[in-house]
Amino acid sequence: MANARFLALHNIAPVLPGHALVVPRRHASSILAISDDDFSELFIFARMVTHVLMEVFSADGFDWTIQDGVSAGQTVAHAHIHVIPRHLGDLPDPGDWYPLLVASETRQIDSRHRQRLDPQEHARITTHLKACAERIGAANS
Question: Which pTM was predicted?
């Protein structure tokens, strides 16, 4: 999904199925560097992305997270929001995704060390997400 100012990408190495990134097209290394107008629109777009992810992945909840700065675990110097669809019972405790992440080797949600999806599987999921977004009118909003 995309519009003139923002882009949503399905994470090639998801923490949980459906993990996506919402990214401003204009470079901003920090969420604090985004204009007030873009900040508001970023969250409106992220909410739209969340609706699509919840439908496609039949989720009943979601996590949003932002790491801003190296000390917060940001590994990509570009502001972005992680959207992670959730299901009752997907982890033993709903908050376990973060402790599992902290216990991992790299301690970063942007980790390049998580298992990556097969390129064909990633392409299949991305195509399905685009079709769903178009169907519900979210692709170019």
Answer: 0.79
